[in-house]
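Action item from last week, closing it out:
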Amino acid sequence: MAKELKFVLLLDCYGELLTEHQRNVMELYYCDDLSLSEIGEPMGITRQGVRALIKRTEGLLLNYEEKLGFAGRLGKMRSCFEALEESAAQINDAELSAKITEQIHKGMELL
């Protein structure tokens, strides 16, 4: 998993546990792909200050995942749903296959 994708997923899982400032900076950096200077200038923070905040917040996110493991479990559940969907597509009864696929999609939306 790419480093950026890893932190986007962790931010999605644990972002509400961060301060608003931490979450905003992380979203600007990882989701909006802004540079350290582009983030810091309007906030009145140095480039180095933004970098330090990102590193500390990455550590928090990794710590949350190590202790809680939600992101890992979500990934495993998505893989299970995908395997179920592939299996449902091989069922000869089209109506049954469609019902199973519909329930799989409902389950994936809950993730």
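Closing note: The two ends are 19 Å apart (CA to CA).
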